[in-house]
Amino acid sequence: MANEKILIIDDDDDLVLAMRLPLEAAGYKVFRAANGVEGLQKVKEINPDLIILDVMMDSTTEGFQVSLTLRSPDPKSEYKAYSHIPILMLTAIHQTTPLRFGPEQDYLPVDAFIEKPIEPAKLLEQVRKHLKK
User: How far apart are CA 48 and CA 71, in angstroms?
Assistant: First the structure.
């Protein structure tokens, strides 16, 4: 375990720090991107073992767009080599809107949803679970 690279794509500095500390304490190498565009660039640069992706950043659906880009079924997609990377979607949208979604729906290709605010133990549990797959 550990030494795996985790990319957090989130624009909230405080939340990123709250995730970074327990992840680094558990031995993970943590990288950060503040928005979807930067996140897609970092995916190519560092080839992370797991991505933690916020839903709402520069736009209310930016995280959805990033996940759809990374998991594009297009064989010519520039992100095809990264489509296997587990994506944990971090969101408070269920608390703030009546919108409901989950990873079981085909239209949203992520591996799991983590509700904000997140407890460090639950974060580590989800990270470990999805890195084993």
Answer: 14
